[in-house]
Amino acid sequence: MQENLFHEAMENAYLVQIEQFEGPLDLLLHLIKKNEVDIYNIPIAAITKQYLEYMELLKELNLDIAGEFLVMAATLLQIKSRMLLPVEREDEESEVEDPRAELVRRLLEYQRYREASSDLVVRNLLGRDVFARKFPSPELAEMEPEEEPADVQLFDLIEAFRKILSRVSVDTFHSVGADGISIADRISQVLSILHEAKTVCFDSLFTEEMTRDLLVVTFLSILELCKLKLIKIVQVESLGSIWLTAAATDDGAEAAGPDADDLELEGAFVG
Amino acid sequence: MSGKSLKAIVESLIFVHDHPLSLDRLALILEEYERADIRIALEDLMEDYAHSDRGVVLVQVGGGYQLRTRPEHADYIRRLNKTKGVKFSQSSLETLAIVAYRQPVTRAEIEYLRGVDSGGVLKSLLEKKLLKILGKKDVPGKPLIYGTSREFLELFDLKDLSSLPTLKEIQELAPPDPFADQPALPLAEEPPAA
Amino acid sequence: MSGKSLKAIVESLIFVHDHPLSLDRLALILEEYERADIRIALEDLMEDYAHSDRGVVLVQVGGGYQLRTRPEHADYIRRLNKTKGVKFSQSSLETLAIVAYRQPVTRAEIEYLRGVDSGGVLKSLLEKKLLKILGKKDVPGKPLIYGTSREFLELFDLKDLSSLPTLKEIQELAPPDPFADQPALPLAEEPPAA
Questions:
Q1: Which of residues 98-137 of B touch A (CB under 8 A)?
Q2: Strands (E), B74-194
Q3: Contacts of B29 in chain C (CB under 8 A)
Q4: CB distance from A63 to chain C under 8 Å?
Q5: A154 contacts chain C (CB < 8 A)
Q6: Rounded to an integer, what distance in angstroms lies between the CA atom of residue C120 and that of residue A147?
Q7: What are residue B94's DSSP bridge partners?
Q8: Which residue of C has its CA nearest to B50?
Q9: Is the peptide bond before B104 cis (omega within 30 degrees of 0)?
């Protein structure tokens, strides 16, 4: 009777979106409820069968099956095979845990939060059931506001930074730009140019045929090199050309290369 | 009639503020008044609102006091605002519930409990400001830890986190079923009373 | 106590609306009530407010009805405004974010990233003590280099700079989904109980 559960359903053409199941735990709870079985004593063979049938159905419909569903399928099969092993009775003291125990704990815990979430949604929600004055009162608007930091979350800060980066250039902070060159790569290129030429004109590092991405990468590489004190930037006269020179190398600073910390910092922005 | 009573002052401050106003904040603003007197004024005000048949009630929510409309008037106000109000997906609600009860909590813990990837829903709840990043957990990998925000309390009409409804206890041991075709689970952490 | 009286309904509507609410508009919203009754409710409400010593008054203004705080409370309300913690402007937030993530950083670098002059906003963040000057950069022109302060950490409730979440950690929450545009497919539901 249960075998054709889902196929029957298809024939009945009851349409429902795949989102019906939040995940494998949700699906399992659904099957347990539908079959009216005791969650503490799940008939694992029957439930596994139905679970796999559902997976089969998804496949037939050419739907992508989330990895979590497959992992659970494997878990169910493993539990099923362990259930078939004879329980060794000789050692009464060390009780062998039921193969289903871990799964049942997870299901119970999940069910608990499911219930908690339905308790939440029936509360008097602000903006749905109850309303407050969520606008600046005219009394306040008439007064001079004084800016003081308070109402800002960490997430706002990260979001602000993300927006800046996306505005500057999508690829600027990507390790690989359109030219397939990262800031780190460009840093070493600029350094080797400087090794040979000792002094180069800033403008000569930016040529016409370079893409915008490469221009930006080059610029950031130079900034990074300044920060690492590996190069010096000199402008002889106001509005005159800018020259780059390798920083003094006597103390071996150059050999040390970019500071590991700084590179890590950089890594944080690379998507 | 003078309106210069402390109770009236407190009422006007709560009225004009667009978020719940805490006793601490009131005490800071009304520096010439004793904190104890402000507290009494608040209690009086709560009492007044509770015993009136007015359209507005004073509630304790999100760590402060706020004036809100009555739930039974929601329908009329929706007509005015032309909004249907917030709607949550099951995944958002599950995630909110888990974070609310288990905070500070990591993404991995949430995903273990829900059994599915929860990165997207976490991000969307952060964007809605219902969750916040509390910092990083002091374990290898330093994962981010999450908690609920003041906005969460405000949205769900909660005075504070301790006023969340108690999470249902998980029944630890099932009564053995003599008709079961499989042995009952020895799930109990503690042995059953022998 | 029922709160379902017309007077209470009218009060709640006036309360939540951000502009004066006219009788016409009220009559339109409360279609199941007689305009004459709504007018009476409004008059009753005016009467109630006039004879109470509450912090809020009902006034007729701009062709409608509006709840406002008592003028004699203006001084207290001004104090609320002072400690209000006005939201960060976008420019402050951007600058703070750049300094937080790229420190030590010069004004030129900030301006390169933001694409606009940032002198004013830097100054204001320095005054708020959220940023500090770390020193001068050893390059021609000796530009000042900026970093975040202890107050910055306190504001965001951070133990130290290393607990600042990275952009990568946030992006990892919801990596771009290549199947995001895939429409939901119809799927059969369980059959009706036969």
A1: 98, 100-101, 112-117, 126-127, 129, 132-133
A2: 105-106, 131-136, 144-148
A3: 76, 79-80, 83
A4: yes
A5: yes
A6: 14
A7: none
A8: C1
A9: yes
> How many angstroms separate the CA atoms of B130 and C12, rounded?
26
SS3 content of chain A, % helix, strand, coil (to 5): 55, 5, 40
C172 reaches A (C-beta below 8 A)? no
* pLDDT grade for C188, boundaries at 50, 70 and 90: very low
Distance CA C8, CA B56 (A): 8
B85 three-state secondary structure: coil
The Cα of A66 is separated from the nearest Cα of chain C by a number of Å equal to 12
Q: Which of B94, B105, B130, B172 to mutate to test the interface with A (most CBs of A within 10 A)?
A: B94
- Adjacent-strand bridge partners of B67: B58
* pLDDT tens per residue across span B36-91: 999 999 999 999 998 888 899 999 999 999 999 999 999 999 999 887 667 888 99
CB pairs A-C closer than 8 Å: 174
Look at residue A192 in the predicted model and tell me its pLDDT: 81
> Strands (DSSP E) along B107-185, which ranges?
131-136, 144-148
CA A19/CA A109 separation, integer angstroms: 21
A105 vs B174: CA distance, rounded Å:
12
Burial-class residue B75 by CB neighbours within 10 Å (0-12, 13-18, 19+): exposed
User: Do β-strands B144-148 and B105-106 pair in parallel, antiparallel, or remain unpaired?
Assistant: antiparallel
Q: Is A19 exposed, middle or buried (0-12, 13-18, 19+ CB in 10 A)?
A: exposed
pLDDT at C30 > cutoff 60 = yes
Chain A adjacent subunits, 3+ CB pairs under 8 A: B, C
Total beta-carbon pairs less than 8 A apart between chain A and chain B: 161
Q: Which of A198, B67, A226 is nearest to C106 (CA)?
A: A226
The C-alpha atoms of residue A170 and residue A183 are separated, in whole angstroms, by 14
Closest-CA residue of C relative to B18 is: C84
Asked if B76 lies within 8 A of C51 by C-beta distance, the reply is: no
B97 DSSP 8-state letter: H
Strands C131-136 and C144-148, by their bridges, are antiparallel
Contact C78 A143 (CB under 8 A): yes
Number of Cβ within a 10 Å radius of residue C78: 16
Nearest to C148 by CA among C103, C114, C107, C88: C103
pLDDT-based confidence at A16, cuts 50/70/90? very low
Output the CA–CA distances (angstroms, integers) from residue A30 to A14, A34, A109, A255, B112, in the order listed.
17, 6, 15, 64, 19
Burial of C165-179, coded b for 16+ CB within 10 Å and e otherwise, reads bbbebbbebeeeeee
B80 contacts C16? CB cut-off 8 A: yes
Contacts of B9 in chain C (CB under 8 A): 55, 73, 76
Using CB atoms, pick whichever of B18, B93, B133 lies closest to residue A121: B93
SS3 B67: strand
- CA distance between the termini of chain A: 51
Is the minimum CB–CB distance between A267 and chain C shorter than 8 Å? yes
Q: Which of C35, C65, C46, C26 has its CA nearest to residue B77? A: C26
Cβ-contact B117, A68 below 8 angstroms: yes
Q: Residue C82's pLDDT is what?
A: 67
